[in-house]
């Protein structure tokens, strides 16, 4: 058992023990401050709008099934001086779409950004379509950009009388630089005298290490860890620059990140991810494999010649049950994650069974880690 517990983690990841799934080992590593925090005020803003795509080759919405498309088309034509009230409009070259985009941080008026166009009705494809002028609004209801342009899609649909070929999602497309920014979000970063850094993975230890790294680099107590997710930096007195210069100086600093002991389990795919600080007390584990095989081999019974009978099918089922039990094995108290994983795999089980075993070990109180099931 000791030799089996000493197998390297590299051999494990090559699949020597796991053939039905994957176990990944998450290890803390050094990272730049700019890669583990978000700076206050430096953020995107989501925009959304409703519009029409025209010029489709008969792949648009069915106006009878999409009344919102018919109403939008009639309203657009009326604004252009075409009165269609009371008329029956029949066209399948128009599609109602939702337009979404992310307004980049500090985007200036007159600059452009990409937009995504998604069909709202029963259109089959947006290929060859053109998005008409569509206002894009933020969560506050104000218009921040205007989108228009030719839609580019990755998928396609080819239909015949007896066959249809479909690739990708032809009802979703993008317009590169398709939106013109009309309104800016006011935030003067350079005028700030203090700024908060938000950790993407909140942790007390990491928060303190970030503050210490900044203070050691600047030479004065500039950064203070306020909580596991926030570090506040203040512009030092007599600093030759503004807050942007200070951010430029500290974002390349490298710190050692930390994380709580956690096991993340995806039961659908059988994937298990373990943190490096997972520990287990000494436990004994046994496992039972039960395999049930069912095979159907029906027999066809024919009546004798000139007999007044009918052909019948007699069911014939072969049922086989195979049960194999592994002996009670001891998983030694682990000092490292490698010994824990190797000790569990020494039992010759797959990840799906390992999921149940880990949950059972957690229930006994022998597993010093949090289990999160996706």
Structure described in brief:
The chain is an alpha+beta fold. Helices cover 19% and strands 38% of the residues.
Provide key terms for this protein.
flat; 3 domains; four-stranded mixed beta sheet; six-stranded antiparallel β-barrel; disordered N terminus; alpha+beta; 8 helices; Gyrase A, domain 2; 374 residues
Could you walk me through the main structural features you see in this protein, from its secondary elements to its overall organization?
With 374 residues, this protein is α+β, with helices and mostly antiparallel strands. Mean pLDDT is 79; it is low at 1-26. It is built from eight helices and 27 strands. The strands form nine sheets. The protein has a six-stranded antiparallel barrel. β10 and β11 (164-167) form a beta hairpin. The two termini are 32 Å apart. It folds into three domains: 2-27 and 262-373, no CATH class; 30-41 and 188-256, Gyrase A, domain 2; 46-181, no CATH class.
């Amino acid at each position: 058992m000791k030799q089996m517990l000493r197998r390297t983690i590299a051999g494990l990841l090559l699949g020597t023990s796991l053939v039905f799934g994957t176990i990944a080992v998450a290890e803390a590593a050094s990272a730049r401050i700019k890669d583990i925090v978000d700076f206050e005020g430096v953020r995107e803003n989501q925009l959304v709008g409703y519009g029409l795509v025209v010029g489709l080759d008969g792949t648009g919405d069915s106006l009878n099934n999409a009344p919102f498309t018919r109403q939008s088309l009639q309203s657009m034509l009326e604004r252009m001086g075409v009165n269609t009230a009371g008329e029956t409009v029949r066209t399948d070259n128009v599609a109602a779409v939702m337009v979404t985009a992310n307004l980049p941080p500090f985007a200036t008026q007159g600059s452009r950004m990409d937009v995504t166009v998604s069909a709202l009705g029963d259109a089959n494809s947006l290929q060859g379509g053109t998005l008409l002028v569509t206002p894009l609004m933020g969560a506050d209801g104000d218009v921040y950009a205007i989108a228009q342009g030719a839609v580019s899609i990755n998928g396609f649909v080819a239909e015949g009388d007896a066959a249809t070929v479909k690739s990708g999602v032809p009802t979703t497309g993008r317009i590169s630089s398709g939106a013109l920014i009309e309104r800016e979000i006011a935030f003067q970063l350079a005028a700030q005298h203090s700024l908060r850094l938000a950790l993407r993975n909140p942790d007390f230890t990491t928060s303190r290490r970030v503050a210490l790294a900044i203070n050691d680099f600047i030479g004065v107590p500039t950064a203070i860890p306020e909580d596991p997710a926030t570090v506040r930096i203040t512009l030092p007195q007599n600093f030759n620059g503004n807050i942007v210069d200070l951010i430029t100086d500290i974002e390349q600093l490298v710190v050692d990140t930390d994380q709580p002991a956690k096991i993340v389990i995806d039961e659908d795919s059988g994937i298990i991810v373990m943190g490096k600080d997972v520990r287990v007390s000494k436990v004994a584990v046994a496992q039972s494999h039960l395999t049930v095989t069912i095979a159907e081999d029906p027999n066809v019974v024919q009546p004798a010649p000139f007999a007044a009978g009918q052909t019948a099918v007699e069911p014939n089922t072969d049922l086989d049950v195979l049960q194999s039990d592994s002996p009670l094995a001891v998983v030694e108290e682990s000092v490292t994650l490698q010994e824990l994983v190797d000790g569990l795999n020494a039992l010759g089980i797959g990840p799906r069974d390992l999921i149940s075993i880990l949950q059972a070990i957690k229930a006994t109180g022998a597993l010093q880690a949090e289990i999160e099931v996706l």
